[in-house]
TrEMBL record:
Protein name listed in UniProt: 2-oxoisovalerate dehydrogenase subunit alpha
Residues of the Dehydrogenase E1 component domain: 88-382
GO molecular function: branched-chain 2-oxo acid dehydrogenase activity
Function: The branched-chain alpha-keto dehydrogenase complex catalyzes the overall conversion of alpha-keto acids to acyl-CoA and CO(2). It contains multiple copies of three enzymatic components: branched-chain alpha-keto acid decarboxylase (E1), lipoamide acyltransferase (E2) and lipoamide dehydrogenase (E3).
Length: 428
């Protein structure tokens, strides 16, 4: 054809389809993973321009070294009491996860999601934020509520969708909503919390308030359009918000390569938007604390948003509906070079002479008993399969301020056809 160049010598075009490095049965070697030594990343002034520290999006802010010492400019210099409180909140989060996972296997709830190995990401951030800073989490930051001392019986009531459930069984288990703890309703629709957090932060600034927002999403969720529109708004209006990307390397069964991890870091997403970007060792509670504290100071002093990638590893299944042995090597967890966040903070406290194995074992025992007792209390309000826990008519409440006529009609019809226990047959 005229005008079309002769391309016979060109190679055929090829599509690149990412493939995870290790599949079930493969032996795992993370030896070539670039992990900078603790203490090597510089700490810019909180009012430094975002384009003056692009390197921080490619390295890793790390405080705890292999011997459990806190080193370098990011050491937040917390008191032993604060460190112990943080350790306890992380251990409680894990104990809570264990108990609720078991409750799901016992048929007491339909669904649960653990955050094993990622406890530092939520707990250390909660410690670095003010208690009334507004959090817009994903489903894997239960550690925020626990670190804010929210009643775990209340959390369990939601998981059991029982009589004590403040959400009246209208949300999937674990999708908490706690206004009193400045904890925004979790949504199952990935990344919707990002533009919501940015919008909330913009409103806080527009009103001349002093509270900032923080939000979390997984690395897989950065592929959502919502992530990118949130970054644009945050950058343009310099919204007082901290945007956390929890890179646990898996999005159910698809690995981080499908969200772009083969080409660059998730922290580097910040650079294109002119946002401050940090890449942090997510299994190092002190690094997470220091990065959050620094980002919060930027937000509070009108320096604008910060995007923090927390490099971590999802140690267990995506949820109780998942079986990771079907798609990844079982050795990944044990070979993961950044270790376990609880073990690392424990090691640090022991190195300081402020903790020991006996006290740790006693704490674990006490926390296991504590969550067991809480579960018993919550279970008195009902569990899955034990009939209706909320009056059926509440099904129609809480969405519209005034129930529209067509829903009112449906409610009346339902009440005429079902008894109070939800069985067919009109109420007496
Ligand atoms: C918009 C949307 N797409 C897909 C899903 C199904 N889904 C639920 S969780 C998930 C994986 C998310 O992975 P990631 O963002 O890495 O978070 P992680 O679970 O690892 O914490 C997917 C695909 C969903 N809930 N919402
Ligand atoms: Mg993930």
């Amino acid at each position: 054809m005229e005008g079309v160049p002769d391309r016979r010598n060109l190679p055929p075009l090829r599509l690149h389809v990412p493939e995870p490095r290790f599949r079930p049965g493969d032996s795992v070697d993370f030896g070539d993973l670039a992990i900078p030594a603790a203490g090597t990343a510089p700490r810019p002034a909180a009012d430094a321009a975002p384009d003056s520290f692009h390197d921080l999006a490619y390295t890793m802010v790390r405080v705890l070294d292999d011997n459990g010492q806190a080193v370098g400019p990011w050491d937040p210099r917390l008191t032993p009491d604060r460190l112990r409180a943080m350790l306890r909140a992380m251990a409680l989060t894990r104990a809570f996860d264990e108990r609720m996972f078991r409750a799901q296997r016992q048929g007491k709830t339909s669904f649960y999601m653990k955050c094993t190995g990622e406890e530092a990401v939520a707990v250390a951030a909660a410690f670095a934020l003010q208690p009334d800073d507004m959090c817009f989490p994903s489903y894997r930051q239960q550690g925020l509520l626990i670190a804010r001392d929210w009643d775990i019986v209340d959390m369990m009531n939601q998981i059991y969708s029982n009589r004590g459930d403040r959400l009246q069984g209208k949300q999937l288990p674990i999708m908490y909503s706690v206004r009193e703890a400045s904890f925004f309703s979790i949504s199952g629709n990935l990344t919707t919390q990002y533009p919501q957090a940015v919008g909330w932060a913009m409103a806080s600034a527009a009103k001349g308030d002093t509270r900032i927002a923080a939000t979390w999403c997984g690395e897989g969720s950065t592929a959502e359009g919502d992530f990118h529109s949130a970054c644009t708004f945050a950058s343009v209006y310099r919204a007082p918000v901290i945007m956390n990307v929890v890179n646990n390397q898996w999005a159910i069964s698809s690995f981080s390569g499908f969200a772009g991890a083969e080409s660059t870091t998730f922290a580097a997403r910040a650079i294109g938007y002119g946002i401050a970007g940090l890449r942090v060792d997510g299994n190092d509670a002190l690094a997470v604390y220091a990065a959050t504290e620094w980002a919060a100071e930027r937000a509070r002093t009108n320096q604008g948003p910060t995007l923090i990638e927390h490099f971590t590893y999802r140690a267990e299944g995506h949820s109780t509906s998942d079986d990771p042995s079907a798609y990844r090597s079982a050795d990944e967890r044990s070979e993961w070079p950044l270790g376990d966040p609880i073990a690392r903070l424990k090691q640090h406290l022991i190195a300081l002479g402020e903790w020991d194995d006996e006290r740790h074992a006693a704490m674990d025992l006490e926390l296991a008993e504590y969550v067991k007792a809480a579960a018993r209390t919550a279970e008195k309000n009902g569990v899955l399969g034990h009939g209706m826990h909320q009056p059926m008519e509440t099904l129609f409440e809480g969405v519209f301020e005034e129930i529209p006529w067509h829903l009112e009609e449906q409610r009346a019809q339902m009440l005429s056809e079902y008894d109070v226990a939800g069985r067919p047959g009109a109420r007496k």
